[in-house]
Automatic annotation (TrEMBL):
Residues forming the catalytic site: 192
Binding site for substrate: 271
HAMAP family in the record: Adenine_deaminase
Signal peptide location: none
Family the UniProt entry places it in: Belongs to the metallo-dependent hydrolases superfamily. Adenosine and AMP deaminases family. Adenine deaminase type 2 subfamily.
Entry protein name: Adenine deaminase
Residue ranges constituting the Adenosine deaminase domain according to the UniProt record: 4-313
Function: Catalyzes the hydrolytic deamination of adenine to hypoxanthine. Plays an important role in the purine salvage pathway and in nitrogen catabolism.
GO molecular function: hydrolase activity
Binding locations of Zn(2+): 9, 11, 189, 270
Top-rank lineage group of the source organism: Bacteria
Marked site (Important for catalytic activity) residue numbers: 213
Broad EC category: hydrolase
Length: 315
């Protein structure tokens, strides 16, 4: 039996396996610039975050209908359940779909078709977190938040992802203030490729409750002390870090040292179809003791947004 755990850093578009990509391409009459699934997998050699993002956004062309988003999410939830996931907080990137003429309603209601049945079908409870693309403008992020208003009963929080360097958290101050006023929880990617200062800014300016990745905090001992003191959860993704070259090799991954430092770390899969494994594979990739594995699993539930959204909004 795999260890029960919560997954807190998972981009649903990053679960698009090559086989499903070709199936959806055929269903929607989309021509992919790859001969077959093997040819596509050959392209999964990344130099950094941007080289991955180029492929990730490109392949989204096959996602067009509610059914496509439902099939994508249901396939992820089945795989996650098999690796012990009992609760999943799922990121989605609406701007990448709106830009292709796919509506917010298609994306959210499509995902919800799978998420709404997930407890019954897979034994996995779910939350949705809408991410803003930080390399797009703050105005575009605000427009996206407004477009999501009719769907807020489906959305628990907001996040910030895409190309990090040069797009500091402060750019999104007003958007996060508006999200907080709407009762949304707040997280942000910070300290993946960007400097430790972006982590501090995400906490101080955006008011985030969790930091996604955050591994570059290790360059700043005062920041580490603050994160430990305030028990700020970090959602680490070891296989992603190696594939995108945030760390040189799994043996160099700072996660064991981060646990040692007292940080509230969790292990997650980020974009499992692209990075060579789902959450259990990420746990297995690192030299962790049984006690460390249990600590990581415990942290994942402590860091989850598990209370009822309606109760929280009414409070
Ligand atoms: N970092 C930033 N943006 C992303 C990622 C990531 O790891 N995955 C999907 N969008
Ligand atoms: Zn991510």
């Amino acid at each position: 039996m795999p260890l029960p755990k919560a997954e807190l850093h998972l981009h649903i578009e990053g679960t698009l396996e090559p086989e499903l990509a070709f199936e959806l391409a055929a269903r929607n009459g989309v021509t992919l610039p790859y001969a077959d699934t093997e040819d596509l997998r050959e392209a999964y050699r990344f130099d950094d975050l941007q080289s991955f993002l180029d492929l990730y956004y490109g392949l989204m062309a096959v996602l067009r209908t509610e059914r496509d988003f439902a099939d994508l999410a249901d396939a992820y939830l089945a795989r996650a359940a098999a690796q012990g996931v009992r609760h999943a907080e799922i990121f989605f990137d609406p701007q990448a779909h709106l830009a292709r003429g796919v509506s917010m309603g298609t994306v959210v209601e499509g995902l919800w078709r799978a998420l709404g049945d997930s407890e019954a079908r897979h034994g996995v409870s779910t939350r949705l977190i809408m991410c803003f693309l930080r390399d797009e403008s703050a105005e575009s992020a605000m427009d996206t938040l407004m477009a999501a208003k009719p769907h807020l009963d489906r959305i628990t929080g907001v996040g910030l992802d895409s190309a990090e360097v040069g797009h500091p958290p402060v750019k999104f101050r007003e958007v996060y203030e508006a999200a907080a006023a709407l009762g949304l929880r707040r997280v942000a990617h910070a300290g993946e490729e960007g400097p430790p200062e972006y982590i501090t800014e995400a906490l101080d300016v955006l008011g985030v409750e969790r930091v996604d990745h955050g591994l570059r905090c290790m360059e700043d001992p005062e920041l580490v002390a603050r994160l430990v003191r305030d028990r700020i959860p970090l959602t680490l993704c070891p296989l992603s870090n190696v594939r995108l070259r945030a760390v040189d090799a799994l043996a160099d991954h700072p996660l064991p040292a981060m646990l040692e430092a007292g940080l509230r770390c969790t292990v997650n899969s980020d974009d499992p179809a692209y990075f060579g494994g789902y959450i259990g594979d990420n746990f297995d990739a690192l030299p962790l003791t049984d006690e460390q594995q249990r600590e990581l699993a415990r942290n994942s539930f402590l860091a989850a947004f598990l209370e009822d959204d309606e109760e929280r909004r009414a409070a």
